[in-house]
Amino acid sequence: MSEVYYKDSAGFQLLNYDYNGFLLPSFPNIQENMDRLPDMPIRDDDVLLQGYFKAGCHWMWEIAGMLVNGSAEYNPDSKLTAMIECASRDQLDQLPSPRVLNNHLFLHHLPREIFTKKPKMIFMTRNPRDIAASAYYHTFQLKKLYEYDGDWNGFFELFFEGKVNYGSWFEYMLQWEKDINDHPELPILIVKYEDLKKDPVGNVAKVAEFLGLPKNDQLFKDIADKCTFGKMKAAKYSQLEFLRTPTKTLFRKGVVGDWKNWFTVSQNERFQVECDKFDKQSTLFSTKY
């Protein structure tokens, strides 16, 4: 695997790691982590959390963790400790059960034991325009990881061309649709970010039912309340020293439709052309929100 720098139109570079043609963040030891991943043991009570980056996986990681532990208490650790492309095998092995293992990978990257043990899997989706806007903020703030100094316009071109971590959103989603259709034996629940925002209690209950957990209306309400954007941001993700702007956090707005404050008319028109193509190919996902 090698470092790959893609330049935007203004000449600003964004760092990716190329793992067999798949773009990843430059996490420490990522080559070793990815190489060892297929042979990683899966536990019977593991939950795997999937989705393109900035699709709401952080949010669902907290929710699912509270559900499997039966308590509306935040995980004291960072999501990175359970992120299988970032954490080492030893770190993952030391996590107590039940584990909620998050990632932004393809199905073929995951441990082979998922096909025999069939752990529950949750797949997050979100409006790709909001993902793009959130991804810019994320990439710009994490300067040490991405080394990107460009503006939104430059980042939009890189995102549009799939030259960012985890590649093209359109290709990523179509590949996952194929994988889901090819493996109906795998238990996969698709959760929309927008649905979770609209009805948090109902969707927490939906996830709990999928995970085979007992109905507990009060717990579901407590978890939905604890996992509101404002409370999570204040409790767990306040100022971080490693961000470009130390007074900022990795949690930005958490709203639906903020892309309208970023996309120009021209950018939206170009993006819509790709969305139309995608919607003609996909029966499982949609760009219409």
Automatic annotation (TrEMBL):
Signal peptide: none annotated. GO terms for molecular function: sulfotransferase activity. The keyword Transit peptide does not apply. The keyword Protein biosynthesis does not apply. Residues 44-276 form the Sulfotransferase domain. Keywords: Transferase. It comes from the Eukaryota. PANTHER family: SULFOTRANSFERASE SULT. Belongs to the sulfotransferase 1 family. This is Sulfotransferase 6B1. It comes from Octopus sinensis (East Asian common octopus). The gene is LOC115215015.
